[in-house]
């Protein structure tokens, strides 16, 4: 599907890198400009997908295997795409998503060793081939992200530093392969510095006022 008028912008990166902070800043900024904007997070965003999220992040589910994990992320995504992503893009909105398919490639592919071509094949099925127009990768050292994150860690966050470092390197690899879509931003910068970069990259995508 490529004949929609909206724009799809995703935010990626490890725990605590600043995705929620920056998606909220961008959503508020776009609203203040009068742009029709919607903000969602993955896994979740709609009723069924939030239920799948609860299964995925539950610390009690230590025995969940990587195939089950991969397919549950895809199941949550498929429902979000149907209920939100497709209709919003068709309606011409700017859709911001806190994580999308790149997260599954990074966490289950690079992190857990699931075959990446398989993830891309199932991903195309779940997303109906919809790809973000623009993706921001907030890159930050794993230790710093987990320190910022603080508090109670979920099932995925509790994995080892080595795991999270594979995820980080995976993200950087994705960005190297798709430089036209993925903008890598050094997450050590201040919120304001990061947001200035994001604003500048998003501006050309906006509908003319
Ligand atoms: N650029 C930044 N510098 C320092 N701390 C930040 C920055 N951006 C966000 N934070 C803080 O770090 C924590 C994690 O940020 P958050 O946006 O929730 O990350 P994520 O959604 O990627 O896990 C929050 O407490 C947030 O206020
Ligand atoms: Mg967040």
Report on this model:
- With 209 residues, the chain is α/β, with parallel strands linked by helices.
- The chain has a single domain, classed as 3-Layer(aba) Sandwich (Rossmann fold).
- The protein is built from 8 helices and 5 strands.
- It has helices at 19-32, 47-57, 66-90, 101-111, 116-127, 142-149, 161-177, 191-202; strands at 7-12, 37-41, 94-98, 134-139, 182-186.
- A 5-stranded parallel β-sheet has the order 2-3-1-4-5, with helices on both faces.
- The radius of gyration is 16 Å and the shape is globular.
Helix content: 40-55%
CATH domain fold name: Rossmann fold
**Would you identify the regions where 5 or more consecutive residues have pLDDT less than 50?**
none
Radius of gyration: 16 Å
Provide a compact summary of the structure.
With 209 residues, this protein is of the alpha/beta class. It has one domain: Rossmann fold (3-Layer(aba) Sandwich), CATH 3.40.50.300. Helices cover 53% and strands 13% of the residues.
